[in-house]
Amino acid sequence: MKRSEGLSEFELVILKSGIKSLRALGNMETFHPVTGPWIEANELHVEQQRLVERSKNMDGCFVVWDVGMGAAANALAALEALKTNPSTEIQLHSFDKTTAPIEFALNNAEELGYLRGHEVLIRQLLATKEVRVTSQIHWTLHLGDFQTGLSDPQIPSPHSILYDPYSSSGNPEMWSLDHFRALYQRLDPHTPCLLTNYTRSTAVRVTLLLAGFSVGIGRSIGQKAETTIATNQLELLEQPLDLRWLERARVSRNAAPLGPVAQEVTPISNADFERLKQCAQFDLARV
Question: Is residue 195 classed exposed, middle or buried when 0-12, 13-18 and 19+ CB atoms within 10 A define those classes?
Answer without folding.
Answer: buried
